[in-house]
Amino acid sequence: MMKKIEDAMTATSFAEEGEAEAARAFLREGRRVLLAVREGQTDPKTLKYALNSSRRVGALLDILFVSSSEPGDPLADPAFRQFASELESAGISYRLVRRTGCMKQEIIDYTNREKDILFAVIESPHSLDAECKKKDSRLAELWRNLKCPLVVVSEAKA
Predict the structure, then answer these.
(1) pLDDT in tens, 41-97
(2) In the beta sheet, which residues pair with residue 147?
(3) 106, 66 contact by CB (below 8 A)
(4) Where are the domains of the chain?
(5) What is the reported pTM?
(6) Which fold has domain 31-152?
(7) pLDDT of residue 29
(8) Strand bridging mode 150-152 / 117-122
């Protein structure tokens, strides 16, 4: 509670001096939206939803980019390059985290570490189970206790 009051007071000081962007940064600090995407499955609607949600709630964006084997380069995808450009144009700060393996497990691990995630955005429930051990009951239990809401934007393309 004291941290929030201190941040509000600091933001007020910056705003009084005409530093609106610095003031906003103090008020946004800690609020994050998680966008989880699987390599090769970057749907523009999902990317747009994450951008608009971050803008609307005044949150920073964490992008969890999960690939099957070695961590890939999301900027190799033209849709993702365009998305990064739109984020910068909108003034939305983001961080890119590359992981490999089971997206469901990576989302669980990430939200357990990062306590300020408001919600996670994914494209399709089908992408969650790729590369996962199907009979892992521990994973199923952890998934039921996910630390934040999960927003599914659209079904994956066949």
Answers:
(1) 878 899 999 999 998 888 899 999 998 777 667 777 788 889 999 999 998 989 999
(2) none
(3) yes
(4) 1-29, 31-152
(5) 0.75
(6) Rossmann fold (3.40.50)
(7) 60
(8) parallel
